[in-house]
Amino acid sequence: MAAVPLACLVALAGCGGGDAGSAPATGTSRVASTEQAKALTAEQVANVLRSAGAPLTVTLVYTAESDPNKLLGRPGGYTSKIAFSDSRIPPAELGEGVAPDAIERGGSVEVYPTRAGAAARAQFIQAALQGAQGVLGSEYDYTAGPVLVRVTGTLTPAQAGVYQRATAGATR
What we know:
Distance between the termini: 18 Å
Strand order of the largest sheet: 1-2-3-5-4
Helix content: 25-40%
């Protein structure tokens, strides 16, 4: 079966296109309704990323109780979230004490009720990282409709590119 770009999956959920910080996708559309956007799950997005060539393994599907950010299902928060590891990051490179769901292991997928929610979260994260001047590390943030894909800055730009292309629906 051919890989389905994330932008196509987002379009099926009633959303489409890229937000600031991601390449524009073809066939963009507006969010049709909150109910349609909620039909898209972080696990579905992870499957699309994997089918597009991202070497990821889902390490945790968050619940409202296990979400360390306390945003899952809450006002202004995401509707689903997963953490993933990337097989290109050697465990020895991480050192001791890095949680199994830490962004440094690969990344995470967050799905919001609206594209504005995903864009606002990406902007918030990047501002926090810039304000910390490297203390918090770095990450790549890619958005498509209500989806935010966060990828560890441990990967090179070329390595992270598979996530960017899959998120934006671009092909190489």
